[in-house]
Amino acid sequence: MPISRRWISCRECAEYLGLSAKHVSELCLRGEIPSVKIGGSRRIDLKAFEAGIEKQFAGREVRKKA
Predict the structure, then answer these.
(1) CA geometry: angle at 26 spanning 20 and 28, to 5°?
(2) Strand order in the sheet with 7-9
(3) CA separation for the pair 36, 41 (Å, rounded)
(4) Distance (Å, whole) CA 42 – CA 21
(5) SS3 27
(6) What is the number of H-type helices and E-type strands within the chain?
(7) pLDDT value at residue 19
(8) 37: which residues sit within 8 A by CB, 6+ positions away?
(9) E strand or H helix at 36, and its extent?
(10) What is the pLDDT of residues 1-59, one digit of tens each?
């Protein structure tokens, strides 16, 4: 899913990851996904999020489904 904006919602992040929006919101509240609250909405910095994922999985072998 190509996204051209820097800040995305929990719902958009959930679609990106294939998770529920509620689960992504919980991950944000626990600090597992870095986010900020802007007004009444929680937003995720897409570039920082992707960089964190890359760092977390750097050097790991990706398993393919059989």
Answers:
(1) 105
(2) 7-9, 41-45, 36-38
(3) 8
(4) 11
(5) helix
(6) 3, 3
(7) 95
(8) 43
(9) strand 36-38
(10) 565 678 999 999 999 899 999 999 999 999 989 999 999 999 999 898 888 888 888 87
Residue pointed to by tokens 């489904």: 65
Tokens of 8: 């995305």
CB count within 10 Å of CB 63 equals 6
Round to whole Å and give the CA distance between 6 and 28. Answer: 17
Residue with tokens 């919980």: 26
Closest CA to 44 of 36, 54, 32, 56: 36
Q: Give the C-alpha separation, 10 to 27, whole Å.
A: 10
Residue at token pair 């597992």: 32
What per-residue string of b and e applies to 39-54 under the rule 16 or more CB within 10 Å gives b?
Answer: eeebbbbbeebeeeee
